[in-house]
Each structure stands twice: as structure tokens, then as C-alpha cells.
Specification:
Elements lengths: L4 H10 L15 H11 L19 H13 L3 H25 L6 H29 L5 H17 L3
Helix pairs in contact: 5-6
Length: 160
């Protein structure tokens, strides 16, 4: 039986309910897998930056262990954390590049300074709140010190 691969590619890339028709127990040849990855790479990404990495796992035990690691690490939360870190990295990169640019109007640095000032005000409010909770006896010294340490670290990170 012959298949028109262009029609199949179009079908797979335009159908939302693809998973209902897939046979997950059938071995997929490497050529087909690579073609699917090529098609998937055509999908848009945030900021038009390709940030995907592909791993082909064929061993069922490896798949099961990887799935367990992913679940244990928080699954979706892990992806969201990576996206937040990527956004922070991109902002910092842009900020540092602007410092070297002759065309820089200082806007990025002003926004960064405004953000740092506002965040420090919020950190001070949080510090006051935890001291208040400690005075009321709602938290102990150990909890207060742990939160203070976190707030101090966040404050220190603002200087980067």
C-alpha cells in the first residue's frame, strides 16, 4: 500500500485529534521520525527562537524512568520555570548589550532601575510583614530567618 507523504504530512500538521488515531505500539522508522521532527520545527515559537531539543527514546524502561523523573521534577512547572529563566536571561542580555551600544537611549537601564526600586520596596514590605507575624507569635524564629534569607537573596540578585 502506497501513501502520499505530502498528504499525510498535511493531515498530521492540520488535525487536532491526531493522537486518537496513532498506534503507539508500532515501531516508527527513523526516516519517518526525522521527517516528523522537521515538520514540528516549523511550528512557531516565542520570540521566533527555536528552543526545543529532541531525544528519541526507543527503550520502554528508559521511557518509563524518564517519565517518572519528569513527573517528580514537576512536569509543567519545570517548563514554566525554564521559560521564566529564559525570559530573565534574555532581558539581562539585552540590558548588558545596550550598555555597550552607542545608540542606547538608556530606556532599558531606566526600566531596570525602576523595577529594582519597586521590587526593593516590596521586599521591605515583606520583611515588615514577617517581623509582624513573628511578634504576633504566628511564626517562629526559624521560619522568620528562613524567609529573611530568601528575601536577602532575592534582593542581592537585583544588583546583577
Amino acid at each position: 500500500m502506497e501513501f502520499n507523504l505530502e498528504q499525510i504530512d498535511t493531515l498530521l500538521s492540520t488535525t487536532r485529534a491526531v493522537r486518537r488515531r496513532l498506534d503507539f505500539n508500532r515501531e516508527v522508522p527513523d526516516e519517518v521520525l526525522l521527517r516528523c521532527i522537521d515538520l514540528a520545527e516549523q511550528a512557531p515559537s516565542g520570540g521566533n527562537v527555536a528552543s526545543r531539543r529532541w531525544l528519541v527514546m526507543r527503550d520502554p524502561d528508559t521511557k518509563a524512568r524518564l517519565a517518572a523523573l519528569y513527573r517528580d521534577a514537576g512536569g509543567r512547572g519545570l517548563i514554566e520555570t525554564a521559560e521564566r529563566l529564559r525570559g530573565l536571561y534574555n532581558f539581562r542580555r539585552t540590558r548588558f548589550q545596550s550598555r555597550k551600544s552607542a545608540d542606547d537611549d538608556g530606556e532599558i537601564e531606566r526600566r531596570s532601575t525602576d523595577f529594582q526600586r519597586l521590587r526593593r520596596e516590596l521586599l521591605e514590605a515583606e520583611r515588615a510583614a514577617i517581623v509582624g507575624l513573628r511578634r504576633e507569635g504566628r511564626i517562629g524564629d526559624d521560619v522568620m530567618h528562613a524567609i529573611e534569607r530568601d528575601l536577602d537573596l532575592e534582593d542581592a540578585r537585583l544588583d546583577v
